[in-house]
Amino acid sequence: MNQVKGFKFHIVTNVFKGIGQIMLQENSLTGLFFTLGIFLGSVSMGVAVLFAALTGTLTAKILKYDQKEISKGLYGFSPALVGVALIFLFKNEVLIWICIFLGSISAAMLQHFFIKRKIAVFTFPFILVTWVFVTLLHQFTHIAPSDAFMSVPDLSDIDNFTSETNGFGEVIFQSSIWAGLLFFIGVYINSPIAALYGLLGSAISSALSFHGHEPINEIHMGLFSFNAVLCAIVFAGNKKIDGILVLLSVLICVAINIGLVNAKIEILQNAGGAFTLPFVIAAYLVSHLQKRKDKLQTRLKKYLIS
Fold it and tell me: Is 1-151 a CATH 1.20.1420.30 domain?
């Protein structure tokens, strides 16, 4: 009996950690705040994020992936994003839930493929799996877009602060001011410096997008900021070099984001959009730059000592 209770507790904790890992936070309380924020915007998306994160976590357990990786929530965040994305883009129908189930399994398995090879791909499994399912759904079904996707959010209450926290909200497809605030608080609970750097990344990307003459409503919604928020969180730290890495990754991310939006690539639009691709590319490039810098510093120290 105690083993059953323990198993249930660990599953719940792992699921919420997986949701927290969407913004690279290994914290179940952070995941709970994210989930509450999603439920505020949409009950269907709230159910989808829990169902998808649970499916991804159970997939990892059934396939006997490393328990430490499961406990960190590494097999929950990409499936969670797949679940929310499909419910955000399409009407709530049975076929969509089947796709969420299959997509969550696929995302967990793809995440494992890269983890085993020690390749940091961040949210790329979510992007690839969602592209495939969205393309297939557009090609072979006539399921209408969801109301959330088609609606225009109310921006009348937005001020400078909430405009930046909206960047947090849009990471998980939420346009609600309250969702953005809850997401910000969720990150702050686990890592204050990551939350504040995320806010800075959102502000920088908003300013650059404004000066790039992008649509002001989309800037206020956080559509040009959420990738920058993720970049800032990845490289957040207490050292001076961390601030430089944050700035560099945000600048690269914004350039890619604006470029992809303005290019209006048809195959990308049919697949649902770029999602977090600008973040993945920018974080990957800056991570490699960081590794090369570390190797160069090590070689210099050895040379100076010798």
Answer: no
